[in-house]
Amino acid sequence: MNSPERRWDPFAELQSLRAEIGRLVGSGFSRGAVNDIELEQTDDTFTVTARLPGVAPEEVALDVDVREIVVRARTATEGRATRAFEYRVALPADVDPDRVDATMDHGLLTVKLPRVVRAGRRTITLGTGGSLSGRPPSPDDPDAAREMHSHDPN
Q: How far apart are CA 132 and CA 146, in angstroms?
């Protein structure tokens, strides 16, 4: 009951409503907890592991971009309540979205994201006939270095 001296506070009502929705829908209503997701990396792969208790594999969707992965899950609980999870993980380097491998086992989602290997700088030399030579000039071959830098009109 409201007393006549007490003023209505819409922000307090919103906080109360949000707390009640969180209680009904589950704690993962809008974002997952930081402890529920991990990012590990090796020289060639990032591995994202997410704990999604009570979620079936068919209730999980992944959005993968070259620098971010978004894990979404929506599951119906008892009655009409629905739980929703969303994890966004920024990746420290580019990945290949076409080569992602994801598995789910007993509520544990494991996503392997292969890093994109960028080609390094390459020097290509032309042979004496003006076509590509199959190999770079040897550093001990002064004629090869001269061929690379001189212009011979013949």
A: 16
